[in-house]
Specification:
The protein has three domains: 143 residues, Jelly Rolls (Sandwich), CATH 2.60.120.260; 75 residues, Immunoglobulin-like; 121 residues, Sandwich (Immunoglobulin-like), CATH 2.60.40. The chain is 5% helix and 47% strand. The N terminus is likely disordered. Strands 4, 7, 9, 10, 12 and 15 form a six-stranded antiparallel sheet that branches. With 386 residues, it is mainly beta. This is BIG2 domain-containing protein. It comes from Clostridium saccharoperbutylacetonicum N1-4(HMT). It holds the Pfam family Big_2. Keywords: Signal.
């Protein structure tokens, strides 16, 4: 019988030891600190942020208590109801770590996503790094927190613990792109720049990389194929904060009338010569395409820009005496270029006559004398041939 009680006592003591150490969850021992206890280090599954973290935003008058008992050797403290501490975090649970003692606030308000609760910093004895408040079961997303006292007395936040998969994020964190949309042709690219808080890492993605994708090396959106897609830039801190740009990609348009490979220029030069003048030449160019297209310009002009086989058009020659003396016995000689036949019977001139030796390949007009400032206009009907 004594042996039985001895064994029972040993088993009972072992069971108490296990219960005192922690609770059993899924076959492993998990820590289970409770509100009011001292918690000088984050438990398994948590990580701690000191109150000196730059992501904490304070308003009002705060001072630093350099106690070695505080987490990391110091803690920021407030004295009145005018101070507030704000921060944002990404995660599902939160713990507030602070010192408590006599004369401290009995009512500290913590508001998470607009929902407020109270906890106390007051205690009959001083205890640093005390677990003052805890909440769990939050959505796995960004949460906004504001802490302030609603009663007289000192209060503080020495540190916060967040679940391992969460993290503090800048209170005013945001991301923006310099373009909300862009239109590109296939093969083209355009710069797209994100603006973020200092030090933030950005991950880029495309809703359809067969349409457009982001080249992180060059910082440009590259158009791949016709269609519409979305380029997304997201801050890589688990917060899910992002910005988007809509990209419209169109195929490159080809010229509606590309020049055939056998196209070339038709150059037509006419000369006007008098017995006492120089021998100026008037040139006009037509782009000949065999079966289409043409451009006309310069001193000798045509009433069309493009011609095709079988087309009829008119050359116009304007001869002007710009000198100070009469031009004597002026003769105009206009040889036809390739692919052009002149209509001899249709040639007209405002002065002189068409020489009887003129043919479909060469027009000669005996203009005669042209006074200073005088102008003679000759029109030559023409036909495009193969």
């Amino acid at each position: 019988m004594k042996s039985y009680f001895k064994k029972f006592s040993i088993v009972f003591v072992m069971l108490l030891a296990v219960i005192g150490f922690g609770t059993i969850q899924d076959g492993t021992v998990a820590n289970a600190a409770t509100v009011g206890e001292a918690l000088t280090a984050p438990e398994s599954g948590w990580k701690r942020y000191d109150d000196t973290n730059s992501n904490f935003i304070r308003t009002g008058n705060w001072y630093t208590d350099g106690s070695s008992y505080a987490y990391n050797g110091s803690v920021r403290c407030a004295k009145t109801t005018n101070e507030a501490l704000k921060f944002k975090f990404y995660g599902t649970k939160l713990r507030i770590i602070a010192a408590k003692g006599l004369g401290q606030s009995e009512k500290v308000s913590i508001t998470i996503d607009g929902v407020s609760n109270l906890y106390s910093d007051s205690s009959s004895r001083v205890q640093y790094q005390s677990l003052e408040y805890e909440i769990s079961g939050l959505t796995d997303s960004i949460h906004t927190v504001e802490i302030k006292s609603v009663a007289n007395g000192y209060w503080q936040v020495d540190a916060v613990d967040i679940n391992n998969n969460g993290n503090l994020i800048p209170y005013n964190e945001s991301i923006s792109l310099d373009k909300s949309s862009m239109s590109l042709k296939v093969g083209d690219s355009q710069q797209l720049t994100a603006t973020t808080p200092a030090g933030a890492q950005v991950v880029w993605s495309s809703s359809n990389e067969s349409i457009a994708k982001y080249d992180s090396t060059t910082g440009r959106v590259v158009a791949v194929g016709e269609g519409t897609c979305t380029i997304t830039a997201i801050i890589n801190d688990g917060s899910g904060i992002s910005a988007t740009c809509t990209v419209n990609v169109a195929n490159k348009t080809e010229p509606t009338n590309p020049e055939p490979e056998d196209s070339y220029n038709i150059v037509n030069i006419a000369h006007a010569k008098g017995t006492n003048t120089n021998n100026p030449g008037g040139e006009v160019t037509i782009i000949f395409h065999g079966t289409a297209d043409t451009t006309l310009s310069l001193v000798k002009t045509a009433d069309v820009k493009d011609v095709w086989i079988g087309d009829n058009f008119t050359y116009t020659l304007v001869i002007t005496n710009t000198g100070t003396k009469t031009a004597k016995a002026v003769v105009v000689n206009d040889p036809a270029p390739n692919h052009i036949d002149f209509n001899v019977s249709g040639v007209t001139t405002t002065q002189g006559t068409v020489d009887s030796s003129s043919t479909t390949k060469n027009i000669i007009v005996n203009v005669g004398d042209i006074l200073p400032g005088g102008t003679v206009t000759i029109k030559i009907p023409s036909t495009v041939i193969a």
